[in-house]
Design goal:
The chain has no helices and 28 strands. The protein is mostly beta strands. A hairpin with a 3-residue loop joins strand 5 and strand 6. The two termini are 31 Å apart. The structure holds magnesium ion. Magnesium ion (MG) binds next to strand 7 and strand 17. Magnesium ion binds next to strand 7 and strand 17.
């Protein structure tokens, strides 16, 4: 079976008869999955392919948007609109209900963002995103350019104000809030070609801004490129050998083994019980005995 268990709890999270299914392949680097329940489909980026793909259980695979400005991570806001990170445009955008695209953030202190990577939405309407340099380091996943800003985590207020909320990261990447939003988890995946830290840090959100930042868990092998939470506060993270399930106290409970390096994940399906996995050239899915915390 595609599981590796390190804690008895994990046996109740997975099902012995649920296979890891490969749904589609042929991508250069699949990333940024987001489940669109109302359209019964998954959207995800093929970053080097400069396109957003759409997969649905009844219609299969199609192209949702091309070119995509080398989009990476996606999420939905509280109104159900698609919010996207773009390497090519070095910006965060929102796709409105009529299909037009609004730019939410593109510069800070008068300098262009690096290459927004992953994004989540808080219940107060603020949008939080990481801004590492991966999309400007080469022409493979964007446009090679000079880095003008540190690799920060930013918060976009509902009034549009952009604030650098975490400024002590090497290369922030995946991020997510705990189910009650009392904690923020942010991965550091290290400088391109120099894998320094590959850990997840945890922040206290009691004051509405992140405080603390202790190392919560060290991912090995690989890195926590993308992460999502289940409804009980377990963190599911991408890794070099699959998807790791980490308890609220930082204990590794078990792994879903995937035959390609995993970039990102999201929960979907009618009960948010299906874990969709973007992994290098392929899109995978496995049904779990847990439900995801995911908007909407
Ligand atoms: Mg990422």
């Amino acid at each position: 079976m595609p599981h590796e268990s390190y804690d008895p709890r994990f046996a109740t999270y997975v099902m012995f008869n649920a296979p890891l299914k490969k749904l589609a392949s042929g991508f250069d680097w699949a990333e940024g999955p987001v489940w669109m329940g109302d359209a019964n489909c998954l959207l995800f980026s093929d970053i080097p392919g400069n396109r957003i793909m759409r997969w649905s259980p009844d219609l299969g695979l199609s192209v949702y948007r091309a070119p995509s400005n080398f989009s990476n991570g996606h999420t939905r806001d509280r109104q159900g609109r698609l919010v996207s990170c773009e390497h090519g445009g070095r910006q965060v955008t929102r796709t409105e209900w009529d299909g037009t695209i609004s730019v939410l953030a593109h510069c800070y202190s008068g300098k262009p963002l690096n290459s927004p990577n992953d994004v989540v939405v808080h219940s107060d309407g603020s949008i939080w995103f990481s801004d590492p340099h991966y999309g400007i380091g080469t022409n493979y996943e964007g446009h090679k350019a000079e880095q003008e800003l540190p690799c920060n985590v930013y918060r976009i207020d509902p009034d549009g104000t952009l604030e650098a909320v975490l400024t002590d990261f090497n290369c922030p990447n995946g991020l997510c809030f705990s189910p009650d939003e009392s904690k923020l988890y942010v991965a550091d995946t290290g400088r391109m070609f120099h894998k320094d830290p590959t850990h997840i840090r945890v922040f206290d959100m009691a004051s509405g801004r992140p405080k603390g930042g202790a190392v919560f868990h060290v991912i090995t092998p690989g890195a926590a490129d993308g992460m999502r939470m289940d409804s009980e506060g377990n963190l599911w993270s991408s890794a070099g050998d699959g998807v790791h399930c980490i308890a609220p106290d930082g204990t590794l409970l078990g792994k879903i083994l995937v035959p390609e390096i995993v970039s990102n994940i999201c929960f979907g399906g009618r009960a948010k019980h299906q874990l969709y996995i973007t992994a290098t050239t392929g899109l995978y899915m496995i049904a779990l005995n847990r439900r995801g915390v995911q908007l909407p």
